[in-house]
Design brief:
The complex is a heterodimer. Chain A is mostly beta strands. Chain A has no helices and twelve strands. The chains are: A mainly beta, B mainly beta.
Chain lengths: 113, 114
C-alpha cells in the first residue's frame, strides 16, 4: 500500500527566506503526486501536481516541486516566502487516476514578519 | 456550480447515537471520497467511490458506512458514534477520466461526540 511521510511537523521561516518542504512516498512505480495547502479557516487547495514528464513542476503562488524517483521524493520549494504562505501543507500520492488518494501528516508553516 | 456541498457544518452527538454526514457534488465527478482530519494525523481516508454502486475502504473505515446510489451523492454514516470519531470530516471529489484527478474539497463538517 502506498504511504506518504512528511518529516517536518512544523517549520518556521522569516518572510523573504526560501522554503523547502519535504515529502517522501513509498510505492514501487511512479505514482501521481500532489501538494495541497490548507490556509487558516479556509479549505484545501491544490498547489501543484506531477503525473509524468518534466520532473520540475510549477504551481500556483510561486511554488514548485521536484520529483526525484531515486529518492522517492517530491519536495516543495518557494524561493521567497510571503506572510500569506503561513498554512498547513499536505503531500498526497495516488497509484492510478481511479485509485485512492493518500495524504501525508502535513507540515505546518509559520512565517515571521 | 456549487462544487462540493457538505451538511451539516457542525454537529454534536452523544456516544451511541447515529447520524449521516451528507456530501453532494454537481460537477458530474465519478470519484468521491471521505477524509477525517485530526491534529498531527493529516487527512486520513475513510471510504472512497469511483462511481455509482462502487465503494471501497480507505485507511480508517471502521465505524463508518457509505453508499453511492447516485453520481452526485456520497453520504457517510456513523452507526454508533464514539468519542474517537470526534474530528473534522472532509468530502472530496474528482473527475479521473480527464486524467487530472485533482480533488475538489467541501468546506468540512466538524463533529463532536460526547
Amino acid at each position: 500500500a502506498q504511504s506518504v511521510t512528511q518529516p517536518d511537523i512544523h517549520i518556521t521561516v522569516s518572510e523573504g527566506a526560501s522554503l523547502e518542504l519535504r515529502c517522501n512516498y513509498s510505492y514501487g512505480a511512479t505514482p501521481y503526486l500532489f501538494w495541497y495547502v490548507q490556509s487558516p479557516g479556509q479549505g484545501l487547495q491544490l498547489l501543484l501536481k506531477y503525473f509524468s514528464g518534466d520532473t520540475l513542476v510549477q504551481g500556483i503562488k510561486g511554488f514548485e516541486a521536484e520529483f526525484k524517483r531515486s529518492q522517492s521524493s517530491f519536495n516543495l520549494r518557494k524561493p521567497s516566502v510571503h506572510w500569506s504562505d503561513a498554512a498547513e501543507y499536505f503531500c498526497a500520492v495516488q497509484k492510478t487516476s481511479y485509485d485512492k488518494v493518500i495524504f501525508g501528516p502535513g507540515t505546518s508553516l509559520s512565517v515571521i514578519p | 456550480n456549487a462544487g462540493v456541498t457538505q451538511t451539516p457544518k457542525f454537529q454534536v452527538l452523544k456516544t451511541g447515537q447515529s447520524m449521516t454526514l451528507q456530501c453532494a457534488q454537481d460537477m458530474n465527478h465519478e470519484y468521491m471520497s471521505w477524509y477525517r482530519q485530526d491534529p498531527g494525523m493529516g487527512l486520513r481516508l475513510i471510504h472512497y467511490s469511483v462511481g455509482a454502486g462502487i465503494t471501497d475502504q480507505g485507511e480508517v473505515p471502521n465505524g463508518y458506512n457509505v453508499s453511492r446510489s447516485t453520481t452526485e451523492d456520497f453520504p457517510l454514516r456513523l452507526l454508533s458514534a464514539a468519542p474517537s470519531q470526534t474530528s473534522v470530516y472532509f468530502c472530496a471529489s474528482s473527475y479521473p477520466r480527464t486524467g487530472a484527478n485533482v480533488l475538489t474539497f467541501g468546506a468540512g463538517s466538524r463533529l463532536t461526540v460526547l
